[in-house]
Design a protein that fits this description.
The protein starts with a strand and ends with a helix. The protein has helices at 18-22, 86-103, 119-123, 132-147, 205-217, 281-309, 356-360, 384-397, 410-430, 438-471, 474-487, 494-522, 536-544, 549-557, 559-563, 569-628, 641-650, and strands spanning 5-6, 8-13, 30-31, 37-41, 49-54, 57-60, 107-113, 152-164, 167-170, 184-187, 191-194, 200-202, 221-222, 230-231, 234-249, 253-267, 312-313, 325-326, 329-330, 343-344, 370-377, 401-402. It has 17 helices and 22 strands. Helix 10 (438-471) packs antiparallel against helix 16 and helix 12 runs parallel beside helix 16 (569-628). Strands 2, 6, 7, 8, 9, 12, 15, 16 and 21 form a nine-stranded mixed β-sheet that branches. Strands 3-4-5 form a three-stranded antiparallel β-sheet, covered by helices on one side. The chain folds into two domains: 5-308 and 347-408, Kinesin (3-Layer(aba) Sandwich), CATH 3.40.850.10; 428-623, no CATH class. Residues 474-502 are annotated as: Disordered.
């Protein structure tokens, strides 16, 4: 869910009507000195403003004209502030809502104001100067065509109905829907909806505008004192967007995600002040129902604004404070316990079901929707009170906070989230052995250390052999050997001693190198090493001695004697001790490497267990989401107090 977002409010000032010009009412009571600021001037003193309002957007569409609102060519656009035409209003207020709807959010746009203030003109407009709906539909299908692909598919449906005298009538159907009109139901997830309402699939903006003209011809309009074709009902035009995306998971196949969103465009009937003797019975009844529903809408807006503006309740006086006194005598005041000094305020009851209009717009006011309100106001002093009431209402609505969220199919969302988690865990387990991970670097470092230790052992062995061979000249080797034998007649031959000592001292090194050779050979950092290099000194020694066959055999048998002679015995012991120390380092590094490999294997097993648990829980969560998605049927009862109380008890 996204962060809570307040309702966007804008005000648009229309030009004077011919009737107002005929009454010599040519001075506007509305001024917009800078963007976002509306000044309401006093009727008696035009130079003094009575109230100041600050909104998100302001549209100055005021200008003298000689004909009706439907003829934009007669507008005289003032130099300051900039004139706001239909395209400016749409781009500023409605186009951002369209972008959010394509992402999966519910959106809603209200047109609220006094009768004849230009609500319908702003919403639909004439063919030569279209309003919000025609422009939004054109951009909608342009965006859908650009985003459609093999993995993403869009479908669009529409509905169009009016609320006349608290009864719902489908404007796209010839059926009346019974004496009480269509019924309102409430879904536990998606909120209120109209049962039996026509939803027509459309493929282009031409289809939408055709159905819009068909529905507009069936709207209830009448001639009133201020408007020749005044809307006598509230109309709600809704576009339903469905986006289907397909994602391919390597271990789960093709997973489809469904996103649904709604665009509600509400054209409210204008409020009217009743004067005795000027309305016939039918117009009077219509005006009463319109004012009643608008009064309920204003009450809902006030309740929601109070819930949003007072998060804490701290209007109590702590009992520990001294009692105030007057003339030496204590004054009776209310005290509260210290625990009630600052308690969270409970959300007050919001009377959505007091009218059909507010019940259907429940999600748009304080619910799951991104909402904008366009307040259309008149420059005439004849509508001063109604204009002030309109500005006060939308100012309160500016503090209402909605909690919009992307509407994704719950089953598809759970499956996608679980598949994403499984993919993340598999990737985490795979990185234990993949290049670039910290574990891979540690393993490579240990393997490189093993290779370096192996090379050091080989180089030291080679250096020792070469140093020993070069240290004794050929003519002194035999004499040295004879003197050592004569001095130690009871000592075993030097060859036997050297063989026994060298085999015993170097056998751990050889065994360790043999044990480590498979792991060393498996690393990519190892470079090939020729075993012939170890025998190179011996080959050079054999080739350098040119003797008879029997002498050559004797020389071959005494090679170890020359390397490990008695005079060099102490030096050989020192070198062997150094090799043993280096061997211990190699063994310790191998032990660390084995611990790292065991730890990685243990983590892989743990990840596999977690993945198994997540996959097994998928079925249970899917079943629970299917149960929550079943609709709950509620009776509307907007006209009956008893029925309304019963429905509230059920909720």
């Amino acid at each position: 869910m996204d962060a809570p977002r307040a309702i966007t409010v804008a005000a648009r000032l229309r030009p004077f009507t011919p009737r107002e010009l005929g009454l010599q009412d040519e001075v506007s009571i509305i001024q917009m000195p800078k963007p976002g600021v509306v000044l309401l001037l006093c009727k008696q003193q035009p130079d003094v403003y009575a109230r100041q309002f600050i909104f998100d957007h302001t549209f100055w569409s005021f200008g003298k004209r000689t004909s009706s609102l439907d003829d934009p060519s007669t507008f005289i656009k003032p130099d300051s502030p900039p004139f706001a035409d239909q395209a400016t209003v749409y781009r500023t207020l409605a186009f951002p809502l369209l972008q959010r709807s394509l992402e999966g959010y519910n959106t809603c746009l209200f047109a609220y104001g006094v009768t004849s203030s230009g609500k319908t003109y702003s919403i639909t407009g004439p063919p030569e100067n279209p309003g919000i709906i025609p422009r939004l539909v054109d951009d909608l299908f342009r965006e859908v065509g650009a985003r459609q692909s093999a993995e993403v598919d869009y479908s669009v449906e529409l509905s169009y109905f009016e609320i006349y005298n608290e009864r719902i009538r489908d404007l796209l159907s010839s059926e009346k829907g019974g004496p009480n009109g269509l019924l309102v139901r409430e879904h536990p997830v998606t909120g209120p909806y109209v049962e039996g309402l026509s939803r027509i699939g459309v493929r282009s903006s031409t289809d939408v505008l055709g159905w819009l003209r068909t529905g507009s011809r069936q709207r209830t309009v009448a001639c009133t004192e201020f408007n020749e074709a005044s809307s006598r009902s509230h109309t709600i035009f809704t576009l339903y967007l469905t986006r289907r995306t397909v994602a391919n998971y390597p271990f789960g196949g093709m997973i489809e995600s469904v996103y649904t969103s709604r665009i509600n465009i509400v054209d409210l009937a204008g409020s009217e002040r009743q004067e005795p003797g000027k309305n016939v019975d039918e117009r009077l009844a219509e005006s009463c129902q319109i004012n009643k529903s608008l009064f309920t809408l204003g009450k809902v807006i006030s309740q929601l604004s109070q819930n949003s503006n007072h998060p804490l309740r701290s209007d109590f006086c702590p009992a520990s404070e001294p009692r105030p006194r007057r003339n030496g005598r204590p004054i009776a005041v209310e005290f509260a316990t210290p625990s009630r000094a600052a308690t969270p305020r409970r959300q007050g009851y919001v009377s959505y079901r007091d009218s059909v209009l507010t019940w259907l717009l429940k999600e748009s006011l304080g619910g799951n929707s991104m909402t904008a309100i366009l307040a259309t106001i008149s420059p005439s002093s004849l509508h001063f009170d109604q204009t002030l009431a309109t500005l006060n209402y939308v100012k309160k609505a500016q503090s209402i906070v909605n909690s919009a969220m992307i509407n994704e199919d719950p089953r598809g969302r759970v499956i996608r989230q679980l598949m994403t988690e499984v993919a993340r865990l598999r990737a985490a387990a795979a990185t234990k052995a993949e290049p670039g991970s910290p574990q891979a670097f540690e393993l490579a470092r240990l393997r490189e250390l093993l290779i370096l230790r192996e090379r050091e052992v080989i180089e030291l062995s080679r250096a020792l052999k070469e140093q020993t061979y070069q240290q004794f000249p050929k003519e002194t080797r035999s004499a040295s050997l004879r003197r050592s034998v004569e001095r130690k007649p009871n000592v075993p031959p030097p060859s036997d001693v050297s063989h026994h000592f060298v085999d015993r001292s170097t056998s751990p090194i050889r065994n360790t190198i043999v044990d480590l050779s498979p792991s060393i050979a498996s690393t990519p950092l190892r470079r090939p090493h020729s075993l012939c290099e170890d025998a190179e000194p011996l080959c050079m020694l054999n080739n350098s001695v040119q003797v008879q066959p029997n002498v050559r055999a004797t020389h071959t048998q005494t090679t170890d004697v020359w390397i490990c002679s008695a005079d060099d015995y102490q030096e050989l012991v020192t070198k062997t001790a150094q090799l043993r120390s280096k061997l211990d380092d190699v063994v310790e590094d191998k032990r660390k490497l084995k611990r790292c490999l065991d730890e990685a294997q243990f983590r892989n097993q743990m990840y596999e267990k977690i993945i198994s648990k997540i996959v097994h829980s998928l079925t249970d969560r899917t079943i629970r989401m299917e149960e929550l998605s079943k609709p709950v049927v509620l009776s509307p009862g907007p006209n009956s107090v008893k029925t309304d109380e019963a429905e509230i008890t059920k909720d």
